[in-house]
Amino acid sequence: MENKIENLTTEQLKAEFQRLKEELCDMEEVHTFTFQKTPVHISAEKVTNMQEEFDEECRQYKERMALIEKELAKRGNL
Question: What is the pTM of this model?
Answer without folding.
Answer: 0.81
